[in-house]
Amino acid sequence: MFESPPMDVLDVQRELAALRTELAEIRRVDTEGWIDRARAEQVQDIVRDVLADSSTRLSESGKRWRSDYSAGLSVASDDGNWTMTFGVTQQVKFVYSSAYGDGSSSEDVQTRWGMEMRRVNLIMSGTAVDHSVSWLLMFQYDSQPDRWATNPGTFQPVYAYIKKDFGSGVSVLIGNHNVPWDLDSTYFEGCSLTAGDYSIFNYRFGVGREPGVSIELKDSAFRLRAGTYSQLSDPNSEWNADTNLSYAVAGRIDYQLGGKWEDYEMESSVIGSDPSLVLGLASVWSNGRADNPTSPPTPSAAGVTADATARFGGWSLEGQFVWMRDAAGAPIPEWSLGSNFQIAAFVAPKIEAFAEACWMETADVPWIAQAGFNWYVQGARLKFTCKAIVPFGGSEINGIGQVAGGLGISSAKNNASFISQVQVMF
């Protein structure tokens, strides 16, 4: 009833079966290869994500602990939680200070000129335990005394603090750091300033760096910093059972319109930057007690200050106003009014011109002005500055007291000082 298929048909069927088996094996191998390729691509994606996340974390940590100093050699642990940057800033300058002696002298017996190693900073900074805990230590060498350098010719610690970031814009700072007061207290060290290199206003009315504890609250529009410190305007102060039982409080609030807070880590505006405005208000008070148990009229800085900073496309404008007791050069303990105006603009991609004028009500020489230019050979890391400083409005330049040294002004009757400086950061 059933007949066997012809031999040729069987042969064809066997051949087809063999072909099917071979095709199935090919498909199986191809499928397994596809799975391997898919897995490989997935692994590569995971690796890329991990590397991107690691890069982001290191970038974020770098911004936190390197923002105060934009140069240096950095090292980090494998997990990125322990980091350290070591950097150096060096400033070499030539100063020609034209000055005369007393009124009976017609010769420029007080004129001075020469080269000097103006300043050397050794900076170490980093994070510890995790990215939210940062630290910074800086030793500074000054070739001559000024308001902030009481021991010239030696390395002195000027910054030594630990910062804890609690998130949501809340952080606490402990150690020797800038007292939140004038506009320049928002910057790290004078060498990080661009326009003018050093602020005349800060030399006259600043309160410097002091040991203390401060808190910062910050969002996109407001930034509040406040703390308690040792006696203001007294660098490297110490106390014992007989002297310097003193303390101070200070606070500063800034309100920003446009821009980002990171844009204000330096003093100049970047070409092409968006317009922005920051309004600042601050107050300080120090009991200035020098001897126990009495409290004679000793330096006890106190006062209020207000300022405004506008930036737009390479232009930077600053206006500062102050009412302060015991400012540098003012009769102690007299109150004094003061103001400062500064303008800076990039006239070429790497050339920035600037001018500043500072007024102090009670000083024998009320006005000090400076003007010049910065040539950013390699950003702030290699910068050449050329400027002139002119005191006017009074008879004796020594009316500004401690301001003289750091600005390159003579202590006698000063006509003008001309300064050329090279700054290297690495």
Tell me the radius of gyration.
32 Å
- Give helix and strand order, one letter per element, not per position: HEEEEEEHEEEEEEEEEEHE
- What is the number of domains? 2
CATH superfamily label of the largest domain? Porin
Q: What is the helical fraction, as a range of percent?
A: 10-25%
Overall spatial form: elongated
Q: Count the beta strands.
A: 17
Instruction: Give the termini separation.
Output: 101 Å
Strand content: over 45%
Q: Low-confidence parts, pLDDT < 50 over ≥5 residues? A: 1-10, 56-67, 397-403
Q: What is this structure's SSE topology?
A:
Blueprint: H1 7-66, E1 73-76, E2 83-100, E3 112-128, E4 130-142, E5 155-167, E6 170-178, H2 200-205, E7 209-218, E8 222-229, E9 248-257, E10 276-286, E11 302-312, E12 315-325, E13 335-348, E14 351-360, E15 367-380, E16 382-392, H3 404-407, E17 413-425
Antiparallel strand pairs: 1-2, 2-3, 2-17, 3-4, 4-5, 5-6, 6-7, 7-8, 8-9, 9-10, 10-11, 11-12, 12-13, 13-14, 14-15, 15-16, 16-17
Explain what the structure shows.
The chain has 426 residues and is an alpha+beta fold. It has 2 domains: 1-66; 67-425, Porin, CATH 2.40.160.10. It has helices spanning 7-66, 200-205, 404-407; strands at residues 73-76, 83-100, 112-128, 130-142, 155-167, 170-178, 209-218, 222-229, 248-257, 276-286, 302-312, 315-325, 335-348, 351-360, 367-380, 382-392, 413-425. The radius of gyration is 32 Å and the shape is elongated. Mean pLDDT is 78; it is low at 1-10, 56-67 and 397-403.
